[in-house]
Amino acid sequence: MRRRIIIALIAVLVAAVPAQAAAVDPLANFYNQQLHWKKCTEHLECATFKVPLDYQNPSGRTITITAARNKAAGKARGSLVINPGGPGGSGVDYIEIATDVVTPALHREFDLVSFDPRGLRRSTPLDCFNDDQIDAFLEVDQTPDNAAEERALVASAQALISACQRSDKELMQHVSTIEVARDMDILRALLGEPRLRFLGKSWGTALGQAYAALFPLRTGLFVLDGAVDIRISMSQASFDQAQAFEIAADRFIGWCLQQGRCVLGRTEVAARSRLIGFIAKLDSQPLPTRNRKRPLTEEQAWTAVIGPMYVAQGGWDWLNIALTTAIEDRNGSELQAINDWFVERSARGRYADNGNTLIYAVNCLDRAGAVSLARAKQQRADWAERLPLMGRLMAWGDEACASWPYRSQESLRSLRIRSVPPMLVIGTTYDPATPMKWARAVQKQIPKSVLLERMGDGHTAYTVNSPCIDKTVDAYLLSRNLAAPALPVNGKRCD
Fold first, then answer.
1. Would residue 95 count as lying in a domain?
2. Is the pTM of this model over 0.85?
3. Which DSSP symbol is given to 150?
4. What CATH number is attached to the domain comprising 437?
5. With contact defined as beta carbons under 8 Å apart, do 475 and 486 qualify?
6. Number of folded domains in the chain?
7. Which of 18, 256, 384, 478 is the most buried (most CB within 10 A)?
């Protein structure tokens, strides 16, 4: 009898264990951490927290995320989490100067919070290349004209893959947008926010969409500024950007001609031809610069043309001066300076962080459908004919991902947003990096969302010299009624 009782008791205990274990949240320890804020810069407090490397194996390896807080100028009524884009942009750097990020009205009410996403700099980094190697990688010709240049382009992609695998093969597989969104939900919990209030720019809008799809009941008021359409293929995204940059370049040329003396010529046709010819010649004859060991290359020149399109007329002035110096004086120093500004390279050859390589890891994990070398060669001719300035350049843009050995465990393109508070989606008419058509598409994909358009040039809209945009965004984010926030009429346009 005693033996039977013991056996029966053991049976009961064994049966109870799985039920109990099933009730334990495997992520509970991550959500129950404490943030210990410490002053880390003149304006910021920083804190770190742990997240699973692989959310499908939360008991495995952990990595560290560094967050930063720029405290509210007044009595804070909560946190506003911000992402500057990228992918791979440093949120810590971005929120250092509050007035560059939000209006004073918004900063009076909220602590500004951001973070370096997994793989970047202050968080557990995916350090694939040193500074000299980044130099070499970024200077590989992205518009190959012959077999040797094609081989060099393919070899550079393979070198990046191999270097990242040597650096941290595991982390390389887990820097996707969806995983960053899951990290952001842990941050939300550690901030003590029942719902996330979020301002995302550029790639930050993809992050925001991923978060809202994964955590609809924890989603608060979201601004998606410079919206990215996460549902399209990488190849389609590249073509859309090529079209948008073509328009932006045309608008720069038109502006240049209006200045009275444009070094590119007197007509749009002549200006286009001279710009293309000038840059193409650099392939075989790089221009001298202040650094004798580092002449201006074709790839640097293209980057120098693209970069100012992000900031529109302020950048156009700089580009016009740089082109004049290069063409008339045969001095590539100013164009190289624009290139270095855009890729965040200091005069001493130091890069701000590893964002120039991390961007490939994130994009290649996120978006399937990268074209092969053969397909890139086929579309090059088509794109170059349709888009003479940017088609040839952008046709090869996603070739690196064709041989990328990993894909995200969760599909970004398959996500759907349902049952969230109304969102504010913003696009800029002539945005070259996130075309206006993407903002229109995203707004249609999110129930109850509203589209706001900044009529102008450059990338993103909030705090970009449009009082109308700023007031509209502020009114929305300052709303206390989650179900009925202060939203503009759908399709509202601002100068």
1. yes
2. yes
3. H
4. 3.40.50.1820
5. yes
6. 1
7. 256
Helix 131-138 with 147-172: angle, nearest 10 deg: 140
Tens digit of pLDDT for each residue in 163-185?
Answer: 999 999 999 999 999 999 999 99
Amino acid at position 326, single letter: A
Digit-coded pLDDT (tens) for 204-223: 999 999 999 999 999 999 99
Answer yes or no: is 405 within a domain: no
List of E strands, 44-133? 45-52, 62-70, 79-83, 111-116
Query: d(Cα 493, Cα 203) in Å, to the nearest integer?
Result: 22
pLDDT tens column, 267-322: 999 999 999 999 999 999 999 999 999 999 999 999 999 999 999 888 999 999 99
Domain assignment of residue 76, given as a range: 31-125+176-232+414-494
| Cβ 143 vs Cβ 298: under 8 Å | yes
- Other CB atoms within 10 Å distance of the CB of residue 259: 11
In a domain, 403, yes or no: no
Going by C-alpha positions, the residue among 193, 156, 475, 210 that lies closest to residue 367 is 210
- Establish if 2 belongs to a structural domain: no
Long-range contacts of 311-318 (CB under 8 A, 24+ apart): 311/458, 311/459, 312/430, 312/456, 312/457, 312/458, 313/255, 313/457, 315/458, 316/252, 316/255, 316/256
On whether the CB atoms of residues 433 and 397 are closer than 8 A, the answer is no
The DSSP element (H or E) to which 224 belongs, if any, is strand 219-225
